[in-house]
Amino acid sequence: MNQTGNTPQPDGMRQQTSFTAYLMGSALVAALGGLLFGFDTAVISGAEQRLQELFQPMSGMGGGARAFWHGFLVAGALIGTIVGAVAVGKPADIFGRRATMFGLAALYFVSAVGSAFAWDWYSFVIFRFIGGLGVGGASVVSPMYIAEISPAPVRGRLVALAQFNIVLGILIAFLSNYIIGLLQLGDVEWRWMFGVEAFPAAVYFLLLFMTPRSPRWLLAMKRENEARAVLTRVGSRNVETEIKAIKESLDIERHNLQEPFFQKKYMTPILLAIMIAAFNQLSGINAILYYSKRIFESAGFGASASLLNSVGLGAVNLIFTMAALTVIDRFGRKKLMIVGSIGYILSLGATALAFYTQSHLVQGDGGAFVREISQTGGWVVFISLLVFIASHAFGQGAVIWVFISEVFPTRVRARGQALGSFTHWIFAAAISQTFPLIAEVSGGHIFAFYCVCMVGQLLWVLFYMPETKGISLEEIQKRLHIE
To answer: Interhelix angle for 303-331 vs 152-182, to 10°?
Structure first.
């Protein structure tokens, strides 16, 4: 439409402008689910030590029991993510991707307010569990929705916006914790750390009204005219050809959304999703995010410096995620995973070596022995963890949700995305639960274990992971030999 009175632009130019504004806007709003995902994941790092002092489910416990229940408190949200990742597939298929995101925004809001006003260990775990439902659901729905509205040439970059917002949310959480810590709010400090999440949750809910429904979901529901209108608005170059390809992949006459998921023809994408999700957490990424302040304090840094170091981790995470976004559709998913895997191995190996060679046991005030690390070892740990975060951001962090959203055909994509997310959060819960127990014995052991796992990831990427860059979702389905 020409409202300026100037010479009208050619149709192709107007379509490109519409593509840029509407598609990018819709993808950014959907990716806000990732921002809340990242914030909710990292915010506990600033408060977990204070929570350990305040909340225990029972008194008179020994050190091992205290470490176990504290690990459970920290992992409480992750149990919610497991349930959310599994449960969100059905609503996403029945009610649609956008309608499901409205529900996730509400869960984030309730969790933020409830966690801020929690009155005991049990109430805190319950409200964190509710937030975990939102995180698990967002890890499935946000990248799936973006993948389904995006043309193939830019799909990788747009889906990776969800990952960009995850790391932005992590940085905002670390920065928010640091600022709140500087305010010296005393006993209510930790409550503010959790409560501020309510504001972006409300904004996310309101902005969702501006986004379209997924065209692939609309076609699955036989609402072809609505799907055609959405594809036109997001800048599809050949709407009718794309509709035909989507309908062929759905194969509406022979398949429906109730088709069994665990069957032989889907085994390849199922195994690919499980492996990339498991390796993502076997790097130790969530343990390092959740316990970053504690790790830096064990490496000899003070409380305020440890919070600031965590901000540094978040900033490096964001910078290298942005770098990955610029090249993921040019270099491909596999090359980024190779670079990230090598960085993982080097950084985790150096961290383990620092704890093995630069630390020693000293007797604390209460008579118990605690492990201290030398100043040199502390700086090795700090630099190594920066390299670790950079490697994660450039490799696994940028690739995982893009890759999982691509390898499943449309008719089972919601369930496939849910499986990948479920696997991711099962391993995240296990890693976060066990970290305090193993780290109390030896920091070197836990980082050496993560390093060995990343050697396994490198071998998997080199010999088994397929490349999916620049290929339509329907063509990927054919290349994986899915009928």
So the answer is: 170
Residue 8 lies in a domain: no
Cβ neighbours of 177 (radius 10 Å): 27
Output the six-digit token pair for 241: 């050809």
Say how many domains are in the chain. Answer: 1
Eight-class DSSP state of 373: E
The answer as to whether 446 is a domain residue is: yes
Mean pLDDT estimate for the chain: 82
Structural domain boundaries, residue 440 = 14-479
Residue 371 three-state SS: strand
- Are the CB atoms for 321 and 343 separated by under 8 Å? no
CA distance 163 to 202: 20
- Select from 308, 282, 4 the least CA-distant residue to 171: 308
Residue 453 Cα distances to 283, 387, 442, angstroms: 7, 17, 18
Place of tokens 């036989």: 222
Alpha helices by DSSP H, 88-214: 89-94, 97-116, 121-149, 152-182, 189-195, 198-207
Dump pLDDT digits (tens) for 211-269: 999 888 888 888 888 888 888 888 777 888 778 877 776 664 345 556 788 888 899 99
pLDDT at 361: 58
Q: Residue 327: inside a domain, yes or no?
A: yes
Q: Which CATH number covers residue 170?
A: 1.20.1250.20
Length of the chain, please? Answer: 483
C-alpha distance from residue 33 to each of 160, 161, 306 (Å): 13, 11, 28
In a domain, 5, yes or no: no
Burial 140-161 (b: 16+ CB within 10 A, else e): bbbbbbbbbbbbbebbbbbbbb
CB 315 within 8 A of CB 182: no
| Buried-exposed string 50-65: b where 16+ CB fall within 10 A, e elsewhere | ebbeebbeeeeeeeee
Output the CA–CA distances (angstroms, integers) from residue 295 to 211, 288, 289, 308, 443, in the order listed. 41, 8, 10, 13, 9
Measure Cα distances from 151 to 215, 231, 474 in Å.
Answer: 12, 9, 12
Q: Of 122, 99, 100, 126, which is closest to residue 111 (Cα–Cα)?
A: 126
Calculate the CA dihedral of residues 296, 297, 303, 304 and round it to 10 degrees: -30
For the stretch 109-164, pLDDT in tens is 999 999 999 888 788 889 989 998 998 888 788 888 888 888 777 777 787 777 77
Span 3-44, pLDDT tens digits: 444 434 434 434 443 446 888 888 889 988 888 888 887 888
